[in-house]
Amino acid sequence: MLAATLLLLGLCASMMFTLVAAHRLATAQDRLTGVLAGWDRRMALTDADGQDKLIRLVTAHCRAGDCGLTVAAAGPAPTSVAGAIPDEATTAAGTRDVNDRLDAAAASNQLPLVVPAVTLAIAVLAGWGLHARLDEYRFRS
Predict the structure, then answer these.
(1) Dihedrals phi, psi of 43, to nearest 5 degrees
(2) Exposed, middle or buried, 65 (CB in 10 Å: 0-12/13-18/19+)?
(3) What is the C-alpha separation between 90 and 111, in angstroms, rounded?
(4) What percent of the chain has pLDDT over 70?
(5) Which ranges constitute the DSSP H helices of the chain?
């Protein structure tokens, strides 16, 4: 029974790694949310710039108004985006940081194998220990 008890304590300690991994995943998720928000702002600005250039190009070639109502109805595209726009190096550094955090969380990826094995060992040892006790206290006439 002592071995089963020690294995149970080891199992409880190993389950703490699950909490640590969950915390690491949560911080990686928060960091990833920030990196993606910056990337979205960057892409929105790039999109707005492309739309502006397209409208300027089309209107430059349609001076006589013969391009139809759609081109005439197109107004200037927005050229600014709310929030700070990160540069390529900042985005790359953020991506590396997220990857590092995910790698740290993946360090406990052996738990799906360890937990069932230790649980089975505890069950076997507990059964073996109880079997020995049952034989001691068995009624004999």
Answers:
(1) -70, -35
(2) exposed
(3) 34
(4) 82
(5) 2-61, 69-73, 88-105, 111-137
Q: Give the Cβ contact number of residue 55 at 10 Å.
A: 15
Q: Coil, strand or helix: which one is 8? A: helix
**Does residue 125 register a pLDDT over 70?**
yes
71 and 58 Cβ atoms separated by less than 8 Å: yes
Tens digit of pLDDT for each residue in 43-101? 888 888 888 788 778 777 776 667 777 776 766 666 666 667 778 888 889 889 989 88
The span from the CA of 48 to the CA of 66, in Å, is: 25
Residue 4 vs residues 14, 42, 135: alpha-carbon distances, Å? 15, 57, 19
CA distance 121 to 119: 5
